[in-house]
Amino acid sequence: MTKAIAISGLTKNYPGGVQALKGVDLVVDEGDFFALLGPNGAGKSTTIGIIASLVNKTAGRVAVFGHDIDTELEAAKSCIGLVPQEFNFNMWEPVSEIVVNQAGYYGIERGVALQRAEKYLRQIGLWDKRRVMARELSGGMKRRLMIARALVHEPRLLILDEPTAGVDIEIRRSMWQFLREINQQGTTIILTTHYLEEAESLCRNIAVINNGLTIASTGMRALLTKLHVETFVLNLAQALSSAPAIAGYRLNLVDETTLEVEVTKGQGINHVFDALGKLDIEVTSMRNKTNRLEEMFMRLVETGQL
Amino acid sequence: MRVSAQYNAFKTILVKEVLRFARIWVQTVLPAMITTALYFVIFGNLIGSQIGNIHGFRYMDYIVPGLILMAVINNSYANVVSSFFGAKFQRHIEEMLISPMPNYLILLGFISGGLARGLVVGVAVALVATIFAGVHLNNLLIVVLVVTLTSSLFAMGGLVNAVYAKSFDDISIIPTFVLTPLTYLGGIFYSIDMLSPFWQGVSLVNPILYMINAMRYGMLGVSDINVGVAIGMICAFNVILYAFALNLLRRGVGIRA
Ligand SMILES: Nc1ncnc2c1ncn2[C@@H]1O[C@H](COP(=O)(O)OP(=O)(O)O)[C@@H](O)[C@H]1O
Ligand SMILES: [Mg+2]
Rounded to the nearest 10 degrees, how much is the dihedral formed by the CA atoms of A207, A209, A215, A217? Predict the structure, then answer.
């Protein structure tokens, strides 16, 4: 199967001495919906910048659908649609012109470009705003403008660098739905995000980079089942002065009426409730301490392993 | 990219650039017309009448070619320096950088934008000149050649300036400290015959002198220097600056991390 992205040994030293990438390896299959995760400064945007040829790499290989960016740059570029982390359109240009011109840069004839711009601006809900200057759009609309712009040449691979940062929850959900549809129609998608819930809900495969190194690259489901410990937060009806003891579980009293329970994989949580019931401790509600992926992610970044 | 795709991409930049300066014509086209009119009133009319003829032309008529070319130079330069720096500053240059457009096409696109503005302003200034002075035409081919080559040269100069500029202040350094002095000393308002041999020699290292004289030959048929040499030089400068600017884009100086 063709690999949408094949990266090996990618390094990047920025002038000034920052070693942003120290050896990133990454393979993304065609048709995948792939999450690239990592804490701030991990090197996600740098990796994406190199793929899209906005950043010159120091060493390593990058191929996009088999086109090496060193030898077949134009072919590689034609396959990619990019939604960068920062707004990078002309604020003094009307919305539709931004999209139509981008199509033009890809060599698309103007008549076709106009049709495509209409299609994607309608799909993304910006058609009403087509004559508005870009600077007048809200943050969420600006993000969506960049998505329409990235799709106008109908790329095989769509790369989104934190596309939902600063986008309110409702719009975020509709963007997710839109991206799912695009993916189902065959476009490979890679995204980076801070909202791990987003990665969990959208992506099939995932890579985690930290400090410029790939520390995990696997299936989302496989990753989640590898998660050993999950922490639940229980809200109690009565105040306690110390955490009760339940054999086999670690309990931690956060405040008088809030109890955290670490449940190891395979243990189940029923036993905790039984034991608490016997102690006459009434649980009024319960939630996950963090999203499961987030927990796994924290562990990965802290320890480098699962 | 296929040739037809390249054509579409090039046209996109050109149209965008033309619309950009056309929308703000009050800032881009009008100022040169007003300045030229002032030059004619002050130098041509008031002072020029005291000077008499130069090389057989009224002073008023003698300065027309230089004034037109000065407007072409300033506007070609200004168009590209502000457009390219703006694109770099707001980062929408990335729209072109991620596209499969080859670097030379990006370069040609910006040059053509500068050329378009240079030509529009050149014609506008020539029209103003007809109000005050006689606009002669000795050799249309030479005029077209000189205007086009000079315009493209300074358009590329604007691009190079924009590549290195780090702030909006930086984009006025070359116009203020290099372009304006060289233009004024390039013989717009005088013939170097009027200078002492020493200053004549100094003037000869000023490339703009050659451009203005070639233009004057195209319009009036008189020149302080050999027109063939002048045009050859302008061509050579174009080739050198083209290679230099293309290399900057290729290496991504100032635009790629
Ligand atoms: N243009 C640049 N010049 C110098 N250092 C940079 C530049 N861009 C990013 N960096 C540094 O490289 C590292 C990785 O940054 P980045 O790729 O943006 O991380 P992420 O997107 O994962 O947050 C950081 O330490 C950042 O400060
Ligand atoms: Mg980033």
Answer: 10
More confident residue, A6 or A275: A6
Whether A221 has a pLDDT exceeding 80, the answer reads no
pTM check: above 0.80: yes
CA distance B245 to B242: 5
- The whole-number pLDDT of residue A274 equals 87
Query: How far is residue A5's CA from residue A157's CA, in Å, rounded to a whole number?
Result: 9
Q: List the residue whose alpha carbon is closest to atom 27 of ligand 1.
A: A41
Instruction: Give the C-alpha separation, B3 to B8, whole Å.
Output: 9
User: What local confidence, expressed as pLDDT, does residue B232 receive?
Assistant: 95
Average pLDDT, chain A: 90
Question: Are B198 and B120 in contact, with CB atoms under 8 Å apart?
Answer: no
Q: In this predicted model, what pLDDT tens digit does every residue of B44-93 receive, in sequence order?
A: 778 888 888 889 899 889 999 999 999 999 999 999 999 999 999 999 99
What's the pLDDT band for B193 if we cut at 50, 70, 90?
A: confident
Q: Do B257 and A14 touch (CB under 8 A)?
A: yes
- Ion ligand 2 residue ranges (Cβ < 5 Å): A 44-45, 85
What atom of ligand 1 comes closest to residue A44's alpha carbon? 22
- For A153-180, the pLDDT digits (tens) are 999 999 999 998 878 888 888 899 999 9
Q: Which of A46, A54, A56, A194, when mutated, tests ligand 1's pocket best, judged by the most ligand atoms within 8 Å of its CB?
A: A46
Q: Give A41 Cα–ligand 1 centroid separation in angstroms.
A: 5
Tokens (6 digits) for B60: 């008023």
Gap between the Cα atoms of A247 and A250, Å rounded: 8
Who's near B255: CB < 8 A, 6+ residues apart?
B88, B93, B97, B163, B249
Neighbours of B93 (CB within 10 A): 24
Q: Which residues are CB-neighbours of A134 under 8 A, at least 6 positions away?
A: A89, A90, A91, A92, A93, A94, A95, A98, A142, A145
The full set of domain ranges for chain B reads 3-251
At residue B254, what are phi and psi to the nearest 5 degrees? Answer: 75, -10
Backbone φ and ψ of A276, nearest 5°:
-65, -40
Q: Residue A282 region, left (φ>0) first, then alpha (ψ -120 to 50), else beta? A: beta
| Cβ partners under 8 Å of residue A273, min gap 6 | A283
Give the start-end residues of each E strand in B119-196. none
pLDDT digits over B81-129, tens only? Answer: 999 999 999 999 999 999 999 999 999 999 999 999 999 999 999 999 9
Domains recognised in chain A with CATH numbers:
3-219 (3.40.50.300), 226-303 (3.30.70.1560)
CA–CA dist B188, B194 (Å, integer): 13
Nearest to B255 by CA among B10, B90, B53: B90
- According to the 3-state scheme, what is the secondary structure of A156-207? CEEEEECCCCCCCHHHHHHHHHHHHHHHHCCCEEEEECCCHHHHHHHCCEEE
- Helix-strand-coil percent breakdown of chain B, rounded to 5? 80, 0, 20
Give me the interface pTM, i.e. the ipTM: 0.91
